[in-house]
Amino acid sequence: MRSIKWKLIIMYLGLVLIVMIVSGSYILLSLRNIEIEKSRKELELYADKINIQVIEDNDAERFQENLLRTGPDAVGIHGNILDANGDTIASTSTLEGPYPVYNDQAIIAAMYGMSSFSSGKKSTDSFALLKEWMSYATPIKGEDDKVNYIIYTRLDAGDMRASLDQTTKIIIIAVAISLFLAVIMGYVFAQTLTGPILALTRGAKNMAEGNFEQSLKVRSSDEIGQLTSSFNYMASELTKNMSEISKEKNRLEILLHNMSDGVISFNKDGELMLANTAALEMLEVDKIDMDFSTFIREYDINSAVYLDMGNEPSKKVTFPVGKQFINANFTPYYSVAGQIEGLVVVLQDITEQKKLDDMRKEFVANVSHELRTPLTTVKSYTETLMDGAIEDREIAMEFLGIIDGEADRMAFLVRDLLQLSRFDNKQVHLDITQIEMNEFLLLTVKQNKIHAEAKRQVLSFEPYSENVVIYGDRDRVGQVVNNIVTNAMKYSLEQAVIKIYISEEDSYFKISVKDTGMGISREDLPRIFERFYRVDKARSRAMGGTGLGLAIAKEIMESHGGRLTAESEYGKGTVMTMWFPKEPPKPQIQEV
Ligand code: ADP
Fold this sequence. Notes:
The protein is an alpha+beta fold and 592 residues long.
């Protein structure tokens, strides 16, 4: 009953009922009045007729006879003539006396000289039937204004009542039919009205559940039709806007998740809003599930970072995560009204940068250190010479020899550093030619044999079964091979055996130098290619090493598209392997 449909039907019914009742009652009353008026007219006319035809110029004896002759104009009208006392002296309801006796208000009024009607009287007729009568009594006065006779006409009101009853019945039936039709019409009307409203309600509900792609059928051009059209327009606009928003969101998400920088954001209550993939990777977690204060505590971040940093634009903090170093930039973000909304933390992995920084510092320290030692020697010997040692020629020559040696050492160091710097700046030009390695290594062995023999070491090379042609810069390849062979001899004791051999693997020729020397410990092995790294500094320096040989060798190998590897067992010996690609290298380093 709460639906508009039923409210409409009930309103419709009520309206029809009221209209029908009012109009029905009006019709009934009007009909009744017309009927009554008509009957009164007839009663009056008949009374006049009796007066003219029977009473005037007639004496009382002939009243009955004449009265019977007057035919009434309407059916069921009875005429009577009464004397001044109200006794009936002639009547149409009987042929001869005795005449009926009437007891009627109208008759009494007529006795007092007034004409009047009376209705609704029930009395029996001549056939002893109880009937409802309508009557009229009028006095006939003599010259002295005395009532001589009374004409009393009456008619059976039953017919009128029956006809009115019939009309009432018809009206009631009409009302019932109208009501029935009203229910049907009301239903149909309500249906056409509420149908689109229900469809709109369903549409709105669907929309609330997130289904924007819907279009309702517009069935009319009335207000509801216009509302439906507006609803469809709204739905299509919303769909468009939503898809724009979700596209924008997707774009941002893709951007955020593919950024190399980590991004985390917190709202002003410190709750986590988002964290991208890079941030998870940098913090070495699968999921971040913490608020701002937990985050600060967990990563032991400087307490100078607050959720509400006031007007401070941003704050940089560096903290370690495992072996990594992360740089976090805390920046507050504001609402349009300038209120702090939260904090964005941008994370950058600065491990590499820090490593490079540390290496650079270490490198500068190493170079200074390497230069300081020979410089101190040169200075102290020069001072000694100046203090008088120059006088003694023998001592002076010895000192000058030492100074010369130290100068050489510095020159070697500077030469090596320059070479490395050229590699770093990609300023090395390689003069690539085909080198047959069997031949090349036989020559190398020949050149170094004398040094090996001086240490009573055995240096051997077993030529490969086939020609081994590599593509390289003859001088540079020679520098690498010599460096490795020299190292093998340097870091092996007397009577050690140093073997050079060639093998193949996939697309590489491998030239290995195996010694039975002191070997390199597991911890030192990965570091021997670093600049200035020496396992035993004193020993290396004593042998004239700068600690840059292998670093340069590695650069040369890489510039040839190859690599340099080392395997070693501490105390047993080392195998250094040069990998040369079989294919000619594509020149990568251009002289500037
Ligand atoms: P250095 O000028 O000191 O020889 P290198 O760069 O040539 O510098 O070598 C670096 C370090 O690697 C050496 O100081 C030495 O400790 C170690 N090393 C190189 N070759 C060998 C080897 N064949 N056996 C043992 N240790 C070696």
